Fold:
Amino acid sequence: MGRIIVEVMPKPEILDPQGKAVAGALGHQGITRFTVTQGKRFVLDTEGEVTEEALAEARRAAESVLSNPIIEDVVGVYEERA
Structure:
């Protein structure tokens, strides 16, 4: 079985209230060196090996279904290797 990872992040100009909340929670723990951006990670399992065709189909899914192109960027589509 193959596995494809799709990573989606908010566009830089979009407010990220979840990331700000996490950064605030870290600050309460005394951890202040980080800014946080929260995104999404999708795991797509496929029968057999991951092929270029499967990666291309995952990219199409990422752009059309897994992300909202108005406010998000697809930043990664790749095979996860054990």
